[in-house]
Amino acid sequence: MVDRLSPGPSSGLLLRDVCVDYGRSPVVQGVCLHATPGRVYGLLGLNGAGKSTLFSAVLGLVPFGGTITVDGHPVDLTQVGASINGPALYPHLSARGNLSVHALLTGTDPARIDEVLQRVELHAGRKRAGSFSTGMKARLSLAMALLTDPPLLILDEPQNGLDPQGIKDLRELIRSLAAAGKTVVMSSHQLGEVAHIVDDVGILAGGEIRYEGPLTGLAEPGENLEDAFFRLVRNTPSIEGEER
């Protein structure tokens, strides 16, 4: 069952019939989804469902068929903040040093650095990123995605490596970003945690969208969210080369 989201025909992130092939093997097949400003969209699926591949297509990292637009226009990467496939950091630099390089490369006012460090609550001083814990690296990766103040955020498993307090902080941050009018798209295979954050969901299984719509419409009468999720993804093979 696919329940298309309707508000704003071209606002936010819109995918129409997106396909990605690795060689002769289809990885993503005819995906349509719509993530709108002011709401958090959860792209959910088991490991190997195609989530990371789909994000890579949005960011132009892999060739794809179909169309992908942001606010009705082809994707302009200056309007997208992304954290996918783990943080890409300079291990010999501090958090501030990493953000300074990113600010230079993107033409961003360095004054934003203190703001985003405070927002993600990363207080690492001069400690080098190579010695950060997994949770600290996740916070820095999120800070880098926020640095340019983009209207669209793509977050691949952003809660990975965070302790319970960090997950709570992340939840509040993501909700505040959506409340400020940003389009936030996050992936996860942890339905229980995502249920506290997202407004809308797309269930991806075997490279296809099995459901898209409000989280509140996912479960059928008598089902809980977990039952509904596994009903939709049951008996779908994982995709070769896709880890998440």
TrEMBL record:
Protein name as it appears in the record: ATP-binding cassette domain-containing protein
Species per Swiss-Prot/TrEMBL record: Corynebacterium uropygiale
Record keywords, A-Z: ATP-binding, Nucleotide-binding, Transport
PROSITE patterns: ABC_TRANSPORTER_2 (PS50893)
Similarity section: Belongs to the ABC transporter superfamily.
Superkingdom of source: Bacteria
Coiled coil: none
Any GO MF annotation of the entry: ATP hydrolysis activity
Residue stretches making up the ABC transporter domain: 13-231
